[in-house]
Design a protein that fits this description.
By secondary structure, the protein is α+β, with helices and mostly antiparallel strands. It has 10 helices and 6 strands, in the order ααββαββββααααααα. The chain has one domain. Helices cover 58% and strands 8% of the residues. A hairpin with a 5-residue loop joins β5 and β6.
Length: 290
């Protein structure tokens, strides 16, 4: 019976992921709605699988359910899955800690009244590295290439990442991605969320600096060669090996959002997060176990 419950959850998860994907390309201008829909499709199927595994583990190997006897196979599958997920979480956390240690080896400088870490490379780079309270890291090439006004716009963008705690939340989203990379459209939705994260930070920065200046900074920074060190963005879970056509398409979308006449992340009604309560349904099956 437990195997049947696990199979049903898996079918529902795959069905949701194979349904019509709400790509940001389908929601031009409605970035807030695209963010919430992509996040739902990314999170709900794994959450359903996680809760089902927890329910099976809690019910154990003894007893009956719906008049059918349970077995140890489903229990072992749930135990192995949750153990594997836990190991992945510890692995990603250790990688994040190594990133922080690497950043602490960089010299600290004062930049417009803020303490930042200086990465000694000619590449143009600026990013938040850490978890809940990340540190801002900028490259020597960025400081030497950008004018003060363009540098201010880049720092405003990074402040947007800090404001939304992107390093912390995307650590957990990256963990979910690692656990369920085998589910349909995982990588597709992950790339959407990364792009929407950048649009959200751009929107935050555009409220403080000239959007045109910010767009010029994007062209300079994003068009340059990425930093060839995975450790710089490990806590963010960001891949640096993005194909060139994809990078150009993202850049076009970000500039489009910046030049939009309305707030691209204004609240849009009609989407309720209460639907996530359905994730708890597998846990209710424990009541029918005896």
């Amino acid at each position: 019976m437990h195997l049947l419950i696990m199979l049903i959850s898996l079918i529902i998860a795959c069905w949701l992921r194979c349904s019509r994907i709400a790509s940001p390309d389908n929601w031009p201008g409605n970035w807030h709605l695209a963010w919430r829909r992509s996040l739902f499709l990314f999170l709900f199927p794994p959450a359903l699988i996680f809760s089902t595994a927890i329910a099976v583990l809690f019910m154990g190997t003894q007893g009956t359910m719906g008049g059918l006897y349970t077995d140890s196979i489903s229990y072992i599958l749930a135990l192995v899955s949750l153990t594997f997920f836990s190991i992945l979480c510890v692995k990603l956390a250790l990688e994040g800690c190594l990133s922080i240690q690497s950043v602490h080896q960089c010299p600290q400088i004062d930049l417009t009244g803020k303490q930042v870490r200086l990465l000694e490379t000619a590449a143009l780079f600026a990013g938040q590295v850490g978890f809940w309270r990340p540190e801002l890291v900028v490259s020597q090439g960025l400081l030497q290439t950008l004018s003060p006004i363009h540098l201010e716009s880049v720092l405003a963008h990074e402040q947007g990442h800090y404001h939304y705690r992107d390093t912390f939340w995307f650590f957990w989203l990256g963990w979910v991605r690692s656990c369920t990379i085998w589910l349909p459209n995982t990588e597709f939705l992950w790339q959407d969320l990364l792009m929407l994260r950048e649009i959200r930070a751009d929107s935050y920065a555009a409220a403080q600096v000239d959007p045109l200046i910010l767009a010029e900074s994007l062209l300079l920074v994003v068009s340059s060669n990425p930093v060839a060190s995975e450790i710089c963005c490990a806590a963010l879970g960001t891949s640096i090996s993005i194909p060139e056509p994809c990078r150009k398409h993202r850049l076009e979308q970000r500039i489009e959002a910046l030049l939009a006449p309305v707030d691209c992340f204004s609240e849009i009604p009609g989407f309720s997060w209460h639907i996530f309560l359905l994730v708890l349904l597998p846990l209710l099956t424990v009541l029918f176990h005896s």
